[in-house]
Amino acid sequence: MTSTVDASPFVNSPARALVCRGCGTEFPLAAQHACYECFGPLEVAYDPAALKRVTREEIAGGPPNIWRYASLLPAGQDPATRVTLDPGFTPLVPAPALAREVGLRAPLWVKDDSANPTHSFKDRVVSVALTAARALGFDRYACASTGNLANSVAAHAARAGVPSMVFIPSDLEPGKVITTAVYGGDVVAIDGSYDDVNRLCSELTETDEFESTAFVNVNVRPFYAEGSRTLGYEVAEQLGWRLPKQVVIPMASGELLTKIDKAFAELVEFGLVEAPADGWRVFGAQSAGCNPIALALQEGRDDIIPQKPTGIAKSLNIGDPAAGVYALEAVRRSGGWMAYADDEEIRDAIGLLARTTGIFAETAGGTTVAALRKLVAEGRLDPEAETVVYNTGEGLKTLDAVADRVGPTYRVKPSLRAARDAGLLG
Amino acid sequence: MTSTVDASPFVNSPARALVCRGCGTEFPLAAQHACYECFGPLEVAYDPAALKRVTREEIAGGPPNIWRYASLLPAGQDPATRVTLDPGFTPLVPAPALAREVGLRAPLWVKDDSANPTHSFKDRVVSVALTAARALGFDRYACASTGNLANSVAAHAARAGVPSMVFIPSDLEPGKVITTAVYGGDVVAIDGSYDDVNRLCSELTETDEFESTAFVNVNVRPFYAEGSRTLGYEVAEQLGWRLPKQVVIPMASGELLTKIDKAFAELVEFGLVEAPADGWRVFGAQSAGCNPIALALQEGRDDIIPQKPTGIAKSLNIGDPAAGVYALEAVRRSGGWMAYADDEEIRDAIGLLARTTGIFAETAGGTTVAALRKLVAEGRLDPEAETVVYNTGEGLKTLDAVADRVGPTYRVKPSLRAARDAGLLG
């Protein structure tokens, strides 16, 4: 599967090549993720004319999921070819009470991607990656995961009836392990960090035994990353085809942030939204236990110094972030900033988001809301500018983070007298 | 709040009265759930002319949630009046592999209501109940719950910025307790069964201190129950405006089953679907630990003998089911049947559903899939007839049910050699 395939799997796709983000060398569309010239990461390049033909009406006429943007994605133009749980078009929730609590005086929205089928934004990237993988002829699905990706790959594989093998660090939250294993595929727990898991998966893709296995975030990573653009398109469409002034995005590999920024730029370029007079500003969130991108920004460096991650925001615990330098670039170019939050701040922010919006986020969402609060307090976010904060996962998967903080406020016997004695009647 | 209110909160509603399901006495639309004449339960009665004006086009032009059926609901016609997380329009997932495993040779679909905002079908009934409650002037939201309802009421109240107080049995799954308490409202754990909790809540509604508290499934229950009809409408619309031949539905109070059956009948009556030549058949599912309705059917009785529930399907553990006799009626009238499953069968069915569809259900969903399998094996379900099975909740909330059955299939150190030694390379 490392050989170049002919273009036919992508015949109706606007994608035209893979291009190196480092040196610009182009390669045919295939299962390749690194440049043969400079070892830089590859991304999908499109035929600009094809993308520019897309209209708001065509999108509005599509299904209420990521496939409404099929004309902007590298694979899956024909619905029959999709390997998908039909994720996306998740709620954009107005959050006036949260805005008040963090000190924003302009509209604030939460893009709530916990509403996806396996309750994280990973369903978007997995649907696109596996649809490309099927087109490329792979017959087993795999990934290196901090948890959410494993849930999504295992569930997609089950729906498609294809074998799967997912790789996770062995210290993951039980909720994420069980929610992966229940789908019946292989689950490989690795005694190491996510970065160790990722390295092993890269090695496995080079073996004969894994020749026909698609690792969604390794050998088909360029297709995988493209799915994140839908999180930019949807926000713009849900705002009535306009861009917010500010967005706050969690960072693990940093790729999600770069792709949302790219999606906004594309929408302007394609004429689907007006170019905002003073652009949009992109803000990144990390945890104190894993902040290599945010530290580089705050210290004015261009290089990312790898870390050994710690802390409760496990889904963000990538110590050697593949797209970190691109996230730095996007944030600097847009005039944004990055912040990081410690475990207590993350727990607080999970509660804050839940109380003010009815959305129960996992630790990654808590990290992002905590960063939102800091960025306002530090004057980095303009309190008068419309803001969107991304929640990428579900609180049910990281219950331990809040288990010792919340519980019943009363415990009583089942009688009116007991209720009265407990003070329930005021 | 027990006094009759004037009709103005429901001025654009097709609802015209509350009517006793026992003796047929009518009452004005208000916070009343039992007949003053015979103590029978009340339900919402509609103006038939108003309902019959609804068209497929009007529905298709609505939002992708329950409010697309606002013209068929008792409250919330004006979007600004809604207290809602915008639940509904959840996926209808084709399940050919599950069909094969249970022995069905016709199309099988899973209506997956774990996709709702708080991941159970309760969001539907809570949105309708609280929208009616707000119209009626209540300023605190409450419920008696086996867990999912508590999650939903607490989340709705948080989004709306209204205080809440939810009542649960103290032995609930931790996932359901934390996911309720995180929203910041009061959570009252009662040392007793759900039926004890429900009885206490009924008593509390009669106190002065709870005069302005809406218990969604007690004093505004008639409105609450109406939300379940959307689970019938959606299936018909998603099938291209036709009815399935067979539906399998979990039973706790039994109300969900009666309302889906009612929704199908309404669609035929309103001319929104063709009347099927030989109707549709309704099947009910309970657990062996709480099967009062199924036992009554199987033993040919008209009365429901209350039970003290046991077993892992806690969200179905209502030993004295309020709508049990109506569920019996609907199943008998339609030519359906009921089955119940023990805890091991429920666990097996959770795994079966996950492996074959990518849907991770809570114990209630496992119960329903286990019942589906039994009903086919026993010849009660026609294996040649199109069937829809309802999954009403999310596996992440009842992880303990499968925690000791599933887990990593391999555990290895992060090296290619370790992977090879573990047998990962075949």
UniProtKB/TrEMBL annotation, chains A, B:
Signal peptide: none annotated. GO terms for molecular function: L-serine ammonia-lyase activity; threonine deaminase activity; threonine synthase activity. Keywords: Lyase, Pyridoxal phosphate. It is an enzyme of class 4 (lyase). The keyword RNA-binding does not apply. The modification N6-(pyridoxal phosphate)lysine is found at K122. Pfam families: PALP (PF00291). Belongs to the threonine synthase family. NCBIfam families: thrC. This is Threonine synthase. It comes from Planosporangium mesophilum.
